[in-house]
């Protein structure tokens, strides 16, 4: 199982259900360099002058640094190309603006990386991953709700 960024965010915010926590504790969990980047963006967006930022930044960085290196999936050249095509197709069909185009690009990278590694994505993002599964049926996603 490859974790989408929604899982990390929900975990850090204490919003995951006990059932999902159990899955994370017992499943064969994999991570993506794409989710590392997305979590890094969160760190960059936090205002260092805000009193809660230092703690939030430390938690995000710790969540990245504790990932076992032998369980990290990194998109290869072919995956980048195919994800770009898939993201462009979804953006065109859904008439996405620039921000949504970038978001679906990351989702396509995570999804196709997981598919290539024989993994299923765990995500709360039903909107994008449902479309990804329809257009790239070689991949799989399992959805959870808060």
Descriptive notes:
This protein is mainly α and 146 residues long. The chain has a domain at 2-30 and 74-143. Helices cover 62% and strands 8% of the residues. It has helices at 5-12, 18-26, 33-45, 53-65, 77-94, 98-117, 126-135, and strands at 2-3, 31-32, 72-73, 121-123, 141-143. The strands form two sheets. Strands 1-4-5 form a three-stranded parallel β-sheet. α5 crosses α6.
Radius of gyration: 15 Å
Strand order of the largest sheet: 1-4-5
Oligomeric form = single chain
- Give the terminus-to-terminus CA distance: 19 Å
Chart the SSEs and their pairings.
Elements: E1 2-3, H1 5-12, H2 18-26, E2 31-32, H3 33-45, H4 53-65, E3 72-73, H5 77-94, H6 98-117, E4 121-123, H7 126-135, E5 141-143
Parallel strand pairs: 1-4, 2-3, 4-5
Helix pairs in contact: 3-4, 5-6
């Amino acid at each position: 199982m490859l974790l989408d960024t929604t899982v990390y965010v929900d975990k850090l915010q204490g919003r995951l259900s006990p059932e999902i926590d159990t899955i994370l504790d017992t499943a064969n969990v994999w991570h993506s360099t794409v989710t590392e980047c997305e979590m890094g963006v969160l760190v960059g967006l936090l205002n260092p002058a805000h009193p809660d930022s230092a703690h939030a930044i430390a938690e995000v960085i710790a969540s990245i640094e504790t990932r076992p290196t032998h369980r990290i999936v990194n998109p290869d050249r072919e995956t980048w190309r195919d994800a770009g095509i898939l993201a462009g197709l979804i953006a065109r069909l859904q008439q996405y603006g620039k921000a949504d185009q970038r978001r679906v690009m990351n989702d396509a990278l995570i999804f196709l990386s997981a598919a290539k590694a024989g993994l299923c994505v765990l995500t709360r993002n039903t909107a994008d991953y449902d479309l990804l599964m329809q257009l790239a049926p070689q991949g799989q996603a399992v959805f959870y709700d808060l």
